[in-house]
Amino acid sequence: SVLARSFSFRVAYAPLPRRRFFFFPAMVIKTELCHFTEYRIYPGRGQRFIAKDGKVSFFITSKVDSLFHQRIKAVKLRWTQAWRRMNKKGKVDENTKRRTRKAAKFQKAIVGMSLDDIKKKKAMKPELRQQAKEASAKEAKARQTKVKAAPKAKSGAAAPKAKADKGQKTAGGKKAGGGGGKNESLKSKR
After folding, report:
1. H helical segments located in the chain
2. What is the CA radius of gyration of the chain?
3. Please, are residues 81 and 97 in contact by the beta-carbon 8 Å criterion?
4. CB 36 within 8 A of CB 67
5. What are 12's strand-pairing partners?
6. What is the pLDDT of residues 80-96, one digit of tens each?
7. Do 64 and 36 touch, CB atoms closer than 8 A?
8. Residue 53: C-alpha distances to residues 49, 59, 62, 111, 131 (Å)
9. Model confidence over 152-186: pLDDT tens digits?
């Protein structure tokens, strides 16, 4: 007890130096994906099912295992990742979105016109182009009227005779021409 009294002393507490925090990389835990839901399965969880063909399926819960064995499709259940992917929910990868390219304008010659002719027409002023269009339209109309007038002069005399033949009746009061088919032959037998 005497020794204990003699060694009693005060310790002055100095402020502690600031601690520097070192960020160590987080521990890597091996996780697997659920075959049905595609959720992460951490160690100590889940059920493993091995089919007859040797295919291994790992399920997160017995519910999922049951759904798999009932042959219910994951795509039809809203809470599965398969459904979310099918219905485009959640984050969409930027890589999968493709930018649509605008088609570059490209000119090539058309049958009856070379590329130079097309460029000349484009370079023409709109008024001149309109005048040229009207002139070509008049020329085409004139050509058509000439073509129509020529056949009328030739077939003018032959047309009335054809009309007269169609309208002629025979002595019995019936029009001349086609056989009456079955009914005509039956009438004559009666």
Report:
1. 2-6, 62-69, 81-86, 115-123, 126-155, 158-167, 182-189
2. 49
3. no
4. yes
5. none
6. 999 999 999 987 555 66
7. yes
8. 11, 18, 21, 64, 81
9. 666 655 555 555 555 555 555 565 565 556 665 55
